[in-house]
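Case study: dTDP-4-amino-4,6-dideoxygalactose transaminase.
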Amino acid sequence: MMNDTKAAVVPVTQPFLPPLEEFMPWLEQIWKNRWVTNDGPLHHQLEQALCEHLGVEYISLFSNGTLALIAALQALDITGEVITTPFSFVATTHAIHWNGIKPVFADIDPVSLNLDPARIEAAITPATRAIMPVHVYGNPCDVEAIERIAQRHDLKVIYDAAHAFGVRFRERSILSFGDMSVLSFHGTKIFHTFEGGAIVCRDAQMKRRIDQLKNFGIQDEVTVIGHGINGKMNEVQAAFGLVQLQHVDATHAARARIDQHYRERLAGVKGLHLHRMLADSSANYAYFPVLVTPEFPLSRDELYAELRARQIAVRRYFYPLISAFPAYCDLASAVRENLPVAEQISQQVLCLPIFPMLEREVQDRIIDIVLATAVARAA
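Here is what the predicted structure looks like once written out:
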């Protein structure tokens, strides 16, 4: 194993930054336009480019993904209760709370790690108005089962698709399912605009409503039609997105190579379960999660500590569960007995570094540490 005592910190992910010279002409265009925000020409250009790339018809850009989640719930006039997953980043549930809606947690499926449709149905009450599932790690939810549940109970479905940029299910964009899908373009994501996000919706009328909501509810110079917010993406973000989009296929290919190398070298390691995408769906390689099960010589937290001590900044996505945070742990649905699978997965999951600039030598160092630590502990 390599001597790693003085190695630089290796993050679990790192934003891809294209060559600066590619970005400069776009900045010059912004200066020439004298239009820096508020529905500018580059904003429109990026919306159109994303529609074409993702295979969707209507998309509305936001300054970040959390505001997009909040606005999506507003646009559909959701009240009452929303069923969601405890196994996600906390912004998913925060968006529900900020709308004055009660989040209701349901357990996850042990294979996909997404909301379990059977547990969704069991959580429905007379106050339920919507479901907010998350495509965790870009792995598609059981969209067909969720659609049947939503139709049976007259519920809206808003997908948190923060991890799911470019994912397809049965030759169809995963973003085309449900009433809306919400993307994150945060710097840690496959495609990013420094900060940013978007809502994918189904028709032009809803896009107009979303566009008004993210611009203070303004309809025209003298008319405000609703309680909007300031969620607009500025022109610099849009310009960066246009540059990023030119590299997204190459970054996807680089991530795929890293994913494959992990799988080749870690295959068959007792106690390490390598999470895989479900059948009929395409992978975007947004994350590389492994489950550290009891058969592994170290616990998940012990392996986490060993890697961290050697400057490998692995992350326990997602631990603790959202339902365990003080803001939500008093909810009846947050009790551990209601979420046994999510609780178990949160105690086992560990995300290893994966990003386009991760060099093979560094990746091998990470793998060597995992393997050597396991051998040493088992001896």
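For the exam, be able to explain this: The chain is about 40% helix and 15% strand.
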